[in-house]
Each structure stands twice: as structure tokens, then as C-alpha cells.
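Item description
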Amino acid sequence: MRLRPTPAVICFLLLLPVSISGAAPPDCARAKAGPDAWVASSVDALVRAALAAYEDEDALPAYQRVLGRITKTLERCGLSRDAKFVEQRREFVEYVGAASLDQLPDHELGFVVPDKQYFEETRDFVTIPDFLTTRAFLRAVGGYRTLARAKSYLRRLNDGRAPDEKLVFFSYKSRHLGTPDSPDSYGRLLIVVPGDDERGVPEKWVQFGVPDVGARAASVRNVSVVSVAQGEGGASNVYFKDFYRTFRRDGSVGIRGRWELGHGDDNCVQCHKSGVLPIFPVEGSVRADELEAVEEVNARFLTYGPASFDKYLDVTKFGPGLGVPGASGRVNVEGEGATVSRAMNCATCHRRDGLGSLSWPMDKTIVSSFVKGGRMPLGSTLTPPERAELYRSLVREYFSTDDTRPGTLKSFLLGKLRRS
């Protein structure tokens, strides 16, 4: 008599990663029999999917599926535990591991620890100063019509502060991104709260989203904190947190972490490769008497040194970024195209020991706005058509999967840019 398996046993068998005979899954067999070919095809698929996701966020799920398949193969087939495989293909394995962090449960921030642990451990770095959470100030900063009252309050605070402790603040309109809770709202009030390295006090960039004229205060609730603390070797450790305000009927305003309120969070480093970002407001959106404050905060940004994210992420695993030629170098362009070719120099500043490499994952809106909008590269005098071509050339060079002229990302993942 034969025993018929129960439904529970059938489900268990279906979940086994290998067949009953012990044979490895087909993808494992292919990867182990021809690891170079498997890695090469995986790199091409990953880079193509990354380009599609960079160009259109609707393609992000497809990119995540490609990344997920590669991650599963590395784990299921034991390749990530194969010392020889990892050493020979170190860039590929480490990149996939770092890039897939935000696909893990409770890792929306993209760090090596769960989001809850990150916020618990960094609480002292990202807490909003008490003097920016008073009822009167939070009500005043809730709209453009009352913003003058908020600034008057900040000026009174500065009257009692030492010169090196004075707040630096101004309002402006962002040319890049809306707030996380209101993508079409670009109003901001930035307040830089000076730190003190000797006492271990971080410098905090506290930014309030401000509703446009005529909009309800509750339509924009976001407050972002980016803190900078002295790190090792001249680098700075950078920490992030988003908060949401709650406007109550009795006139009070509550403020809690976006994550704690159950609204999730974003991968911070995707946009913040350099830690804090320099501020390039929409022209005419800053009052004349506050323009000096814009210059001051951007000057502070340049003093922070290379951005590090403490023990939570090693961004060097993402490799070089825009402006670094692939393994085949860069074609020497002459004539009309020479001006654009010379301007492909992002890596002069955006490198590992500088302002951070502009590597994938990165935000298209920020990159295209800086390049096409005339802010980058610094000191260039390109025409609008030249800037458009510069942007296309940078993206093409970085994401190319051409076997004869592989782009920066493909070259890096295949180990072709490894330093001897």
C-alpha cells in the first residue's frame, strides 16, 4: 500500500529550494558551470534595468525583480559564501548586496540595519531642537503668510546667541524636488543649527516644507533633519530623519517621525551621496537680505569633507559615478563636441574622497536639474543645447552595456576598474 502525502507535506515539498533528488536548480547549475558567463549576463541585465529605472520610476519594480533574482541566485547557490567566487568578482557581489538592502523587510532607508534600529541608535543626532518645536513657531512656519513671524522668532533667538552659535536661515523655493508628503510643493524654510565638534554636538540642517500662497497649512507637513558630525580621517558622518507635523483643531501642532507614524521612509543616500546638498534656489525666491545666508550655508557644506554614513552603509560599494570613463576610456573628441567632452568632469569633485560619487542608485531629477539648469559643472559656460548633450553623454557613458565600449557601471561590476 502506498501512503498518499498530505496537503501540508505537498506544500513543504513545493517550498524546498532543491529537488528531492538533490540536484541543484537550473540557474545554480548554469552559474556554477560558467560563472563568468553568468555574471556577465547578470551585469548586462542589471545595468539595462537600472537605466530604465533611472529614466522612469515606473520601471523601478522591473529593476528590483532583476536585482532580486541575482541576489537569490547568489544566496541559494552558495556563491556569496564561495571565497574564490567572491574574491574574483568582489565588486559585483558587494554591489548587489548593498543595492538590495532597501528590498529587505524594514530596510526602507537602505542601511545595513533595520529602520527601527537606525532611528533608535541615531536619535540624539536627528532630534529637532526644542526651540524649533514650540507651538508659536510651528504655527508660524505653517504657511507663507505667517512665515515672517517665524523668522522674527529666529532673529530674537539669535540676539541671545554667541556669534558662532547663531542660526543661519532663509526661505526659498527648491528647483529640484517637492516635499515627501506633497511632491508639487517646493517652498522651504532652512535653518542651520551650528554644531560643536569639540563637545560632540552635530551640526543640523533642519528644513520645513512651507505651503504655497493660498494653500492650507496641513497640506505640507514634512520636516527634514540632516545632521553632520565629525568622523574619522577628515570625513563627516551624516544622519537623516523625516518628521511630519499634525495640525490639530485646538491650534496645537504635533510633530513625530514619519516612520513612527507609519508612513514609511525613503532610501536617503539615493539623493544624498554628498550628505547634505548645496542649496540652489529658484531665482528670485530668496529675499535680498537673506542671500548672504544662502552663500554661508553652501560655504559650510564645502567644509564638511567626504560624507560617510557611519557604520550603516559603505557607499564605496556602489563604485565610481558619472564623469568616470568606462574600461575602454573616453574617445578623444575634437571640434564642436570637444567643449562638451571636456565638461564631463563630475568626478573632479564627485569622487570617493570628495563630494561622493554620483553612482546608481541616484535621482534623475536632481542630476538633470543640476546639469541642465547650469549649476554643474562648476565654472562652465555651456549653452542650453550643450548642457542637454552633456547630460545625455554622461548618462550614456555611465550606463552603456556595449561590449566593445562598456560604460562605467558595467566596467566596475565586471572588475575592470579594479586598482592594481
